[in-house]
Amino acid sequence: MSENVDAARVRDCLAGDPQAFAALVGLYEKPVYNVALRMLRNPEDAHDIAQTVFMKAYQNLANYDPQYKFYSWIYRMAINESLNILRVRDRNAGPVDERLPADDAGPSDLLVEDQRRDVVLEAVGRLKPEHRAVIVLRYFVDRNYEDMAEILGIDAKTVKSRLYTARQLLKEQLALRRVL
Amino acid sequence: MDNGRLQELIQADLDGELSVAERAVLARLLLQDPEARRLHAEFRRTDQLLRNVAAAEPPPALRADILAGSAQSLRTGNSGPRPLGLSAYRMAAVILGGLLIAGLSYVLIDARVPGTDLQGSLMAPQGHLSLRAEGAEISASLRRDGEQLRLELNSSTTIPCEIIARIDPATTTFLGNSGDAALTAASGQVTIVPATGSRRVVLDFSGAAPIHLELRAGGRLLGEGSLSVSNAR
Known about the structure:
By secondary structure, chain A is an all-alpha fold. Helices cover about 70% and strands about 0% of the residues of chain A. By secondary structure, chain B is an alpha+beta fold. In chain B, the strands form two sheets. In chain B, strands 1-2-3-8-5 form a five-stranded antiparallel sheet, with no helix packed on it.
């Protein structure tokens, strides 16, 4: 979706057109929900975060800067809200171990597709938040390096470095679980 | 070819970012080096497994909940109560609990300050200030710790903004900071650029209060105020 179209919708919304905001929700409800779901692996939390993100966006539309992409703005909010929840979880649960526990999972060809997906998501869910965020943005909302840098407030070089580390960790863990 | 360059090429290949020339380099390398071929195949398979995870469908009620929340916000003014799910209540409870513990800890720590000067309160005098605008909320507190002034800033922002702390350079010097924000110091002012989200930064000064705070976004002044604390101990 062109950011110009989104910026026009924001303007319409600020001018009092409720359908404009409904259109933005319709476009971005699913990716925002998926960002939160893949960051947190909890549908209830993802639902709450999607609500919070759109509420904050609605309340702060006047401050939206159209030089940035609208989706970057709301994905950043979704990531930040997710990170806030992860910080609380980490304080309660201790440091993250990015390795999957080795188990007695059988070889890849014995795993059905759903099981493979669950193993992949579990491995993603065990990544540190900064690694998880780049994987989520790359694979679950299909953002390129430039978008990821804008969303995360880091430079593209750091994005590439985090993405490589995250992929390396996932590759090792999936090999350990014989999914690769 | 060094390993770093190979990794760079593989990653660019996965992300569709290879130039024609780079594609040729990678192809040649994969042809010549079985180890590079193995690594490439493993990354490709990992990439494919991730791509195979389908996007989840949001719950059917989500859109209605969002729109109902925004309509409610409209009716009650821009800061209308947002619908809270169960886990949001859990979060609120955790935050309130954390604030209570932090507050008690602060009082206990301050009360342990050795008081040679028994005429005064054991607690250092404080100055508090909150600045709030759409997309940015700053809570600031200033307290004296011996010869030093300690300014604690807690920001919660959804928009890029900056906080400027202005001091009198004739009487006050910026000593340093800790926390989670980009910062530049010049004579008479310290500019803090917190990343969006919830951030905390602590600035230390020597000298005398007051410290004047400004909250700005895109050069526009969103709020300002002064913090003061007794200069005599």
